[in-house]
Amino acid sequence: RTVRSQFNNKMNRAVVLFALLALPCASAMEGIVCGEGGITCPAKDQILKTPDGSCVNGVSTWTNMFGYKTYDGKSYDGSCSFFGGVPALAEGLGWFIIVGLGGIFSLAVSAAIYFGEKSVPARHQEEVKTSEHFNSAGRIIPSGLCACDIVSKWTWATTFLQSSNVAYAYGISGPFWYASGATIQILLFSIFAIEIKRKCPSIHTVLEVVLARWGTAAHLVFLFFCIMTNFIVTAMLILGGAAVVNAVTGVNIYAASMLIPISVVFYTMQGGLMACFISSWGHVAVIYLALLIFLWKVYAGPSELGSTDKVWENLMSAALKYPVPGNYDGTFLTMWSRSGIFFGIINIVGNFGTVFVDQSYWQGAIAARPSATYKGYLLGGVAWFAIPFSMATTLGLAGRALDLPITMNESGSGLVPPAVAVHLLGPGGAFLVTFQLFMAVTATGSSEQVAVASLCVYDVYKRYFNPAVTGKQIIYLSRVGIAIWGVISGVLSIVLLNIPGINLGWVYQAMGNFIGSAVAPIVFALMWKDCTAIGAIGGALGGLLGSMIAWLVIAAEVGGGVINVNTLANENAFLGGNITALFLSPVLAMLLSIPNPQNYDWADLVKTTEGYLIEEDRHAHADTQMLEEDSPEAMDKALYWTNRTGAVMTFVLLVAWPLLALPQRNFSKSYWGWWVAVAFIWGHVATFITVVVPIWESRAFLMHVLGIQKMDFSATERGREGYTADGSVAMRGADKSAMYPATGAAKEVSPMAPVEQVFPGYPMAYPGMYPPYGGSAGPMPPMMPMGGMGMPMYPGSPPMMGMGMPQMGMPMGYPPAV
């Protein structure tokens, strides 16, 4: 009876919620009537006329249907394009943004890293200097900063540019499908983030999981897919950023392509992954500030628009001049959009690869505290939704509502946002959107640099060239890798810029064809114990082959037997390749695995991956977490909750919301007002999550750094019952055979490293003992509980030899026994 009552209550709440969401659907608009409700009738000779299509000798017959003028009072009539080859800002200002502001921001992040590390107590200083801290940020990142990092690394150039492009081309369905189709991957990855903490908290990269489960062959195959993912993501970042900087400021596009990634190299080399987290707050603060400015300017501020009603009237007028093929009534304000739905499917499929196969998202989960992983990814996904949804609903549709002379070539290159910003705010708008874009590109760029460096150091150099690599060598090589990738990524973008027909939109929609087939096997690595190495490899490579065949065949059919950049860009070809990649792969993996399942023991994954640690990290083990909320039991409960939360939010974004909008067909004024209100609220809530929450969570440490109030680093008042602080790798019997040689000479390691790292293969009388100063550990007297000079004889006893050592059973770095 109680269960039935709870079920009925949940059903009643669901019915009420859906009823409230469906209320705006009550008054659907039928057709667009010229001259009624403020709708302007376009001149007959202007219907479907484009600025570039009617251009002769630099002058067109195109006119602005509303009579709007430029920010400095000049007429748009006769324009062949919006920018016309004339930048909105002086070239010097472009250099100032890239070099000047980029340098200032880099110095600010470097200073924050320096003072932050300097403020850490002496007993923790060794921890912040290890390779584990450099590449995994100490595994202590809180949820707010984790969400901030997710937003910064998921906000590419395409987030602003491509989302506004599809809004300009398809109408309101474009921003929605861009936002929802790229948010669900983050929401679902929150489940993965918990599984990382439950099953392999000691890993550094995604490929270490692949190696532990399936061996060298699979490791090499997925190394190929991971590096290709980083190539594609980095290329899209720089392609969009360089194109906008060049169009708005006139800075040479090749120079911009090289300088944009290099601008973040210095602080990333200094602080490693922690630098990415620190800089992410500054990045998203600028991004959301600009977003709110544009929201208020278009829908509430002083401008030719200034209200939702005026935007609705102008968009209906624009639909009469430029009816959208495949949209209901040709209107921009409808979810009945064939091209919008096609783009949504491509977007959903393609973005699974750029999340699950991208090392930067794995390293974000690795770096977070266990309790912060799922919270950070869920909050980050919700907050990120506002950027493409609210931003493109504002700038993308404003481009149509203002009837600006933006050509489809300019739109395809991502120039809708800067064009609208220039019209609304003049040079100030151009500066704001360029700086916003620069921050977005550099935010993701720094994460990609650390991701590639980690793959090269841990999965190439350490695995195949020097298994006995030391922590100092890891840090040095990581810094070298960051610098090299900064240069390579610039060169890569220049190469793509010189391929005719390749632009931001082309690369974005093609990415799923190349990397989508790796998604399912990587998911199986942590979620399906029966997947075999043959199944994983066959699924990934077979899916890639099938994707290429489908893409080429459909392109040839559409192009009458011709395959080139243009025919490959057909939306049916993109769609066919993307779907084949994502769905053929798991089918092949299951068919190849089921006859001879692996039946993998997850306990082996924990044990094996702990052997991949180079230097000890007391936060790298599930059962040594000090706080109750980070314990294995808490993670089990969090997994249950996150599974359901991720599933519900995915259902709402992909099914419930679009279905509730379909009855509207052509949005009425009231429904459009409600839609904009959602974008407004979402944008402000997202700003609070990513700008305010990280500061609040870190307030104690910030006050400590600023000298306002000393921070208690022990946090013992929140310790969980039954907590034991054994952080050693050797005591767990970790299998290091995959990464360390059986025998060998002594190597350079931290003075407090386990003896088996000093002398590989050395027999341990007391496994896990930390010999002083790198010496060997022999049998210890039975009455001495810990076996280390200076350790107390019994709990609570005074420290020996005047050394401030923690009491028995507590890890290094804890408050001395008193």
Quick structural gist:
With 818 residues, the chain is an all-alpha fold.
If you had to describe this structure to a student in words, what would you say it looks like?
Helix content is 61%, strand content 0%. It contains 29 helices and two strands. A two-stranded antiparallel ribbon has the order 1-2.
How is the secondary structure organized here?
Blueprint: H1 2-22, E1 55-56, E2 59-60, H2 91-118, H3 131-136, H4 143-154, H5 157-170, H6 173-199, H7 206-214, H8 216-249, H9 253-262, H10 265-271, H11 273-299, H12 308-321, H13 338-356, H14 359-367, H15 370-401, H16 408-412, H17 416-425, H18 427-465, H19 471-497, H20 504-515, H21 519-527, H22 533-558, H23 565-568, H24 571-593, H25 602-610, H26 632-661, H27 669-697, H28 699-705, H29 755-758
Antiparallel strand pairs: 1-2
Helix pairs in contact: 2-8, 2-10, 2-11, 2-18, 4-11, 4-14, 4-15, 4-27, 5-6, 5-15, 6-13, 6-15, 6-26, 7-8, 8-9, 8-18, 8-19, 8-20, 8-22, 9-19, 10-11, 10-19, 11-15, 11-18, 11-27, 12-15, 12-27, 13-20, 13-24, 15-17, 15-26, 15-27, 17-18, 18-19, 20-24, 21-22, 22-24
Tally of DSSP helical segments: 29
Low-confidence residue ranges: 14-27, 715-720, 723-818
The secondary-structure class comes to mainly alpha
Distance between the termini: 56 Å
The main sheet comes to: 2 strands, antiparallel
Percent of residues in helices: 55-70%
Q: For this entry, what is the oligomeric state of its chains? A: single chain
Radius of gyration: 28 Å
Beta content comes to under 5%
Lateral arrangement of strands in the main beta sheet: 1-2
Number of strands: 2
